[in-house]
Write a structure and sequence with these properties.
With about 170 residues, the protein is mostly helical. The chain has helices spanning about 1-10, 20-25, 35-55, 60-70, 75-85, 90-105, 105-110, 120-125, 135-165. The chain is built from 9 helices and no strands. The chain is globular, with a radius of gyration of 20 Å. The mean pLDDT is about 85.
Length: about 170
């Protein structure tokens, strides 16, 4: 039941929640802070994160848990020595996917921040556009520079990301 409750979050479009999220952020006094961007990002990342991690962890053989329990391992040792190492592809997949969603965020930063010091990258790229013209070479240079960190993260974690995305599709 809890799993289904979390998955319900996937059915709700992020754009449909902008007004309630804005009102909550203003009431909490977090408007124009980085926390105003962090809290909604974490909240909207939870459903897909739970979906990927749950499907991946279901593929870990139950016999491994049982053998570690028979050997006297505590729950924390099982988590640290079995679950986390075997779930590394799923954790990397979730990390890259969620980072990509936050990195490309535009709507929430536009609505929940005002000062230029709190702007995220896509919002800063948007400021290169003038009222009647756009500095195309500057925009393209900024876009290329903005892609480099995520491209490096993808190159480093691509094998684990593919394994994490295909979890649960084997026999």
């Amino acid at each position: 039941r809890t799993f289904r409750f979390f998955l319900l979050g996937i059915a709700i479009p992020i754009q449909a929640t902008i007004v309630p999220v804005y009102l909550m952020i203003v009431q909490l006094g977090l408007y124009d802070t980085l926390w105003a961007l962090i809290f909604p990002s974490v909240g909207f990342a939870i459903p897909i994160t739970i979906l990927i991690l749950t499907n991946f962890m279901r593929d870990i053989p139950r016999e491994l848990f049982e053998s570690m329990t028979v050997d006297g391992a505590t729950n924390m040792q099982i988590l640290r020595r079995l679950v986390l190492p075997m779930s590394a592809p799923a954790l990397i997949t979730v990390g890259i996917y969620d980072a990509l969603n936050v990195w490309n965020g535009f709507l929430f930063p536009l609505i929940l921040t005002q000062s230029s010091g709190k702007r995220v990258l896509p919002l800063s790229l948007w400021t290169y556009q003038g009222e009647f013209t756009a500095d195309v070479p500057a925009i393209l240079a900024a876009v290329v520079l903005s892609v480099i960190p995520l491209f490096v993260a993808y190159v480093i974690g691509r094998r684990q990301m593919v394994a994490g995305l295909t979890a649960g599709f084997g026999k």
